[in-house]
Amino acid sequence: MYPADLKYTKDHEWVRVGASDARVGITDYAQKQLGDVVYLELPPVGRSLKKGEVFGTIESVKAVSELYSPVSGEVTEVNSALVQNPEAVNSDPHGSWMIAVTVADPADTGDLLDSAAYSDLTK
């Protein structure tokens, strides 16, 4: 259910680390808990983030939740299409990245969960 090429946080964000950056989004579990997503606020390109820091908010018909960065680094890209159509998070949460970050310290990913551990967490 949770893609094996992603790493996960206990706060229900996922991260896909690539060659030059990491893409961040929320998990299927998170979008199910939120319900219909109606608004997304993301940081500006160039903002520096620390691991665990709030980088934005996601609003649904049920709640407003903060989004936490799974890694430290600089925001290099924001998914503006997702900001315009935030409901895409509900239909494709693991394909709907929110921000891209240049990872400052590759060790940041060392304590993130793999798909099996995250699946156990959400049972």
List the topology elements.
Blueprint: E1 7-8, E2 13-17, E3 22-26, H1 28-34, E4 37-41, E5 48-49, E6 54-60, E7 64-68, E8 73-78, H2 80-84, H3 88-91, E9 99-103, H4 115-121
Antiparallel strand pairs: 1-2, 2-3, 3-9, 4-6, 5-8, 6-7, 8-9
**Using only CA atoms, what is the Rg?**
13 Å
- Mean pLDDT level: 96
- Per CATH, what is the topology? OB fold (Dihydrolipoamide Acetyltransferase, E2P)
What's the oligomerization state?
Answer: single chain
Unreliably modeled segments: none
| CATH architecture term | Beta Barrel
Helix % is 10-25%
Instruction: Please give the alpha-carbon distance between the first and last residues.
Output: 12 Å
Main structural class: alpha+beta
DSSP, total strands: 9
Largest sheet: 6 strands, antiparallel
Architecture overview:
This protein is α+β, with helices and mostly antiparallel strands and 123 residues long. The protein has a single domain, classed as RNA polymerase II/Efflux pump adaptor protein, barrel-sandwich hybrid domain (OB fold (Dihydrolipoamide Acetyltransferase, E2P)), CATH 2.40.50. It has 4 helices and 9 strands, in the order βββαβββββααβα. The strands form 2 sheets. Strands 1-2-3-9-8-5 form a 6-stranded antiparallel β-sheet. A 3-stranded antiparallel β-sheet has the order 4-6-7. A hairpin with a 4-residue loop joins strand 2 and strand 3. The longest helix has 7 residues. The chain starts with 6 loop residues before the first strand and ends with a helix. The model has no long low-confidence stretch (mean pLDDT 96).
Concise overview:
The protein has 4 helices and 9 strands; from the N terminus they run E-E-E-H-E-E-E-E-E-H-H-E-H. With 123 residues, the chain is of the alpha+beta class. The chain has a 6-stranded antiparallel sheet with strand order 1-2-3-9-8-5.
